[in-house]
Amino acid sequence: MSDGATAGAGTTDVDVEALIENADGTDSLFEYRPGSSVLHRLNPVTKLVASGALILIAFLLPTFWGPLALTVGLFVLVATAGAGVARSVGTVLVAVGGPLALSLVLVQGLFYPQNETVLVSLAVPVIDRLAFYEEGIEFALLILFRLTVLMIALLGAIVTTHPKKLTVALMEKGVSNKIAYVFMAALQFIPQMQTRAKSILDAQQARGLDTSANLTSRVKSYVALMAPLLIGTLIATETRALALESRGFTRKGERTYLLDVADTGLDRAIRWLAGLALIAVIVWRLVL
Amino acid sequence: MTHITFEDVTWGYRTGEGRAVSNLDLEIESGSFVGITGPSDAGKSTFCRLIPGYVPHYFDGELEGSVRVGDRAVREASIGELAERVGMLFENPFDQLTGASTTVIEEVAFGLENLGLAREEIVERSVGSLRQVGIEELIDRNPQRLSGGQSQRVALASVLAMAPDVLVLDEPTSQLDPHGAEAVFEIVAGMKEQGYTVIVVSQRLDRLAPHLDRLLVMEDGEIAHDGAPEEVFTTPGIDAVVDVPQSVRIGRRLREVGHETDGAPLTVPAAIEELRPHVSDTSAGRADGGVTVPSSPEGREADGDPRVAFEEVAHVYEGGVEALSGVSLDMASGCVCLVGQNGAGKTTFVKHMNGLLEPSRGVVRVDGIETTDARVAQLARHVGLSFQNPDDQLFHDSVEAEVRYGPKNLKFDEERADETVERAIERLDLTDARDRNPYDLGMPRRKRVAVASVLAMDTETVVLDEPTGGQDAPGTALLGDAIEELVAEGKLVVVITHDVGFARRHADRVIALGQGEVLLDGNPREVFGNPETLAETDVDPPVVTRIGHELGLPTVLSIDELFEYVE
């Protein structure tokens, strides 16, 4: 701190982007995974538009083959974006997609109302035979692959996009800074609440609140926790408004951003392509 | 540069009773460094809020008179406009975070983005102000996961990045240990050198006074004293409202005993210079080396079974940080002060005493019970623990309900609860606030409510984490008296404190922790007689002790003791 008084500082060679992107996170599955793939470098808005279009297309396509192809293609694309990204997406796919696939195939394969053609028939004790129908299985796969497209597209966009970059990109496209702020603050809100809840619980136990005695006192303890948590949040909200105001948050006029979020020719091309593809599918399904 | 003018300013908050400040009529020269001190609720924060326009633009109330910052009338300019000229650091640094940043650099850059500066300039100014407050290494950390002291510096960097001409700092060191506080005051004094106008509210005059051009003392919303610090400190009766620095008290005493001196030495070196010619040779007349100086209540600690026993206790947090490594000690009664720098393991240590933390290795026993065998709620009958931040501990809408919460949980019968609640409220001088909402009280009084709510549990062991932080002189004295009374009843009182002056006055035993280990453990004279070891954990002995050491005297603990060596 001895050089504390030497203000201003000369030119800096700090790579802010790398710094922010590689900062430690909370390791949740839905959190940003740093990387430098094409997917990472795309403009966040492009990723949102493209994944939105792909999801709509998947839901418009009539048979499961289309969504299947999209699922495979998307997964390959996401997997090339780095091990961290692949792990996040893969984990969610297995954890959610697995049970989903099983239940869809069972329920629809056996009980889909339009079931006619028997695909397999299994000999089962007690109830004699169990028949899986082609129509039901196809319907199950259609639903399943639509949902996997949804999962991969959204998750792929989320884990390859730093939230700060997303807000900058949105503001550059005309979204108000208040909405962008609410988005960022919401992301930070839950860990903040957890920390505070822990402190309050500690203080209450230290003053004799028994949280592990029986159900009634446990319920009571949660009620007792909510009050200070809410009061604290309200007070924080009030002072936060002042904190924001004092940093020119409500100031009118041009804003700039700490990060430069590129919007390249490739981005524009992808957004056009996604839009055109969506229109083409809509026309095909509704008009032809 | 910017000149600040108050013309007959009076303000009352719509929600509050009466006027917060009245008849403020003064000018603050551009480029001056002004300190503000005075009792809690004297209007110091309101004074600060008037400069960046939070009053009247953000808070509701009636403003009479006018405040001008440079050529701008605060009444006419918006907070955003004033922010380019006036930067204010809030009392609680957590309140100043935007809550929308994933890293410290985003936090610091937030205001600059709103000003619409070029990217390169944003980066340069953000990094520059982080460097200025000495926290460049925190640049990629998450602002929500910093310690109080770190947040305070991030908040300061965020304010400096906006490049205001005027800096207003409301208790900028409330979350810092003394070395951290000194570092902040040095940065701020450096800002003055660069032409900033600086206004600082603080109770820590020992560290602040040497830097000041001018000191204002506020009482009941008015400016009671205004002048150079030396003048203010020599005003008769000032001791009742202001915690006058030890070095000044020594200078005054020197004059009282009949020596001609320059007046009020603001720094330790100045006090030493004034004393040096009058100090007798240590061997002369005091061959015993000061060991038998009759003074502080040392040796009061009783023998007998320890109430609290630590055996080889280590604690490793999730993530591998070892906060305690092999601590063994017993505590029976009396006042035990824990000292040590931020992060030394003091809070981790006391959280083991009521089972909130369990040892990773070793055993903690409280009144013979192993803490791992009992629930926290059961241990609460034995150990009452009050935390540093009162806002995590207050959850009722009146002070009385708050204080009654502990006794109710412990199922005291009506009569006993009434009695302990009453006594706790009286002890902490909260009688006139008993029906008020704790959140309507100022931070120092809220802290006293948190202490009262622990005292009401009438436990044999009481633990207080930084009870004197942010308290004014009367508040600190009140807490000291309360602790003395508890000790007189035979209780064990463990106090975490950065205030070595407080430890000097009240401790029977001082334990210095550093890096999770016990560095020193003994009576205050033994511990404060070891400045080299204390330095390992960034603790300085009390000012009077330091002055004694500098003059080659044995360890003295009070001005009376020091003056036994003065001719």
UniProtKB/TrEMBL annotation, chain A:
The chain crosses the membrane at residues 48-77, 89-112, 139-161, 222-243, 269-287. It comes from the Archaea. GO terms for cellular component: plasma membrane. InterPro entries: ABC/ECF_trnsptr_transmembrane (IPR003339), ECF_transporter_component (IPR051611). The keyword Membrane applies. Keywords: Cell membrane, Membrane, Transmembrane, Transmembrane helix. It is found in: Membrane. Coiled coil: none annotated. It is a multi-pass membrane protein. This is Energy-coupling factor transporter transmembrane protein EcfT. The gene is ecfT_1.
From TrEMBL, chain B:
It is found in: Cell membrane. Residues 4-245, 308-540 form the ABC transporter domain. It holds the Pfam family ABC_tran. GO terms for molecular function: ATP binding; ATP hydrolysis activity; ATPase-coupled transmembrane transporter activity. Belongs to the ABC transporter superfamily. Probably part of an ABC transporter complex. Responsible for energy coupling to the transport system. Keywords: ATP-binding, Cell membrane, Membrane, Nucleotide-binding, Translocase, Transport. The keyword Cell membrane applies. The lineage of its organism: Archaea, Methanobacteriati, Methanobacteriota, Stenosarchaea group, Halobacteria. It comes from the Archaea. PANTHER family: ENERGY-COUPLING FACTOR TRANSPORTER ATP-BINDING PROTEIN ECFA1, HEAVY METAL TRANSPORTER. This is Putative ABC transporter ATP-binding protein. One of its GO terms (cellular component) is ATP-binding cassette (ABC) transporter complex. It is a peripheral membrane protein. Residues 280-304 are annotated as: Disordered.
